[in-house]
Amino acid sequence: MRPSRLLRIICLLLSIGCGDDDGPKASDDGGGGRQDSGIALPASDSGSSSDSGSRGDSGTRNDGGVVGASDAMAGTPTSDAASEGPATGPTAERYFPAGAFMYQRIDSAALDPDSAKVTQWLQNNGGWGNGGIMQIDFSIEVLDATSSTPRRAFTPKTDEEEFYTPDCDTAPFPVPTGGALEGETGYACESDGDCHLIVVDRAEGRLYEMWRADIRGSTFLGGCAAVWDMKRVYGPEGRGEQCSSADAAGFPIAPLLFSADEVAAGSIDHAIRFILPNARMRAKTYQHPGNHAGGPSGPTDAPIYGSRWRLRANFDLASLPNEGARVVARALQRYGMALADGGNIALTGQSDRFTTKKWAGLLAPRDLSSIKPADFEIVQTGEPISLTYDCARTPIAN
């Protein structure tokens, strides 16, 4: 997991690496794991996310008082989950208006002047995490809430330094009956992983994301939480410069996941979340559309937190093993991927527990393993920004 904010600041001042901030993710030398679909993965395939902010590098946390989403935003908290019916996944609608960054095609965007140097550096220095090959993690759940879904207040994990002020929000969270956290069978964080809780309420127009959630009976503990206004197009500053979210780069997570339903339908019309080991990302630096970084400790030629990458137009899609892999690759050519967190499994797909289509027979963890860092180009999204962890939240209208 990612180091605490205090430790990361000390490392920043001393110019030393802090290791992966990443939450439940496989170590670089492998480790057991499984897909959401319940299919056991080989040791090298395992691992989940990152150092996500709010945890994983996302370094976000806060003890409460936050500028922006008020506690009242999410409704009245209740102590126990009500029975409004089983949890389901969200519909295929977009999470944000069409102007949001993840929906912008970048196949003809200008290249970053350091693109070739950075992608080649990554290829020469370990490549993607967990053995250097591109793999897919399928463990993050996305749940759907309705007006009858109970809202529950939570206790921020300030003592564990997993919730930061003013990065993180304190609004009560909707908790659908029968749902689950990332990598878990229910709402208890038994594996001590990233344990993301992600819930979308389309009627309310809010996306709720939390890192390191843990719900056991009437006790609800939470790491960094971010409540996103889905009617808003966030500017380059996102929720605020130097501010984390439930993901280290300060991004929303759900809109950057690709689902079995999308792949089966033949089209992914948005950017995709990807992660790298902290030692393979430039230290003390992030770049828009990101707004934060966890504990990156790499040299100046390493990739930058928040950067946007696209698969080369001349990549041979026919070389991939199946149409599911080609659907993902086409999205990587058109919309690219955004560097969101620290960890070992490069790409993040949504769990199929609550989707109509399933990953089995559609796409496997290593179906994109032939794609190397040098097969990508990095687009120009702005100048590198020095990391300070000095979060300045951007006020939003409720």
Description:
The protein is globular. It has 398 residues and is mainly beta. A hairpin with a 2-residue loop joins strand 12 (214-216) and strand 13. The protein has helices at 5-14, 115-124, 260-265, 323-334; strands at 33-34, 40-41, 53-54, 57-58, 136-140, 143-144, 151-152, 155-156, 173-174, 197-201, 206-210, 214-216, 219-222, 225-229, 240-241, 272-276, 285-286, 308-311, 337-342, 347-350, 376-378, 385-386, 392-393. Helix content is 10%, strand content 18%.
Provide a short characterization of the protein structure.
The chain has 398 residues and is mainly beta.
Give the key terms.
398 residues, mainly beta, four-stranded mixed sheet, 4 helices, 23 strands
Shape: globular
Number of helices: 4
Mean of pLDDT: 83
Largest sheet: 4 strands, mixed
Distance between the termini: 33 Å
Strand content: 15-25%
Which SSEs are present, and which pair or pack?
Elements: H1 5-14, E1 33-34, E2 40-41, E3 53-54, E4 57-58, H2 115-124, E5 136-140, E6 143-144, E7 151-152, E8 155-156, E9 173-174, E10 197-201, E11 206-210, E12 214-216, E13 219-222, E14 225-229, E15 240-241, H3 260-265, E16 272-276, E17 285-286, E18 308-311, H4 323-334, E19 337-342, E20 347-350, E21 376-378, E22 385-386, E23 392-393
Parallel strand pairs: 5-20, 6-10, 8-13, 16-19
Antiparallel strand pairs: 1-2, 3-4, 7-9, 10-11, 11-14, 12-13, 15-23, 17-22, 18-19, 18-21
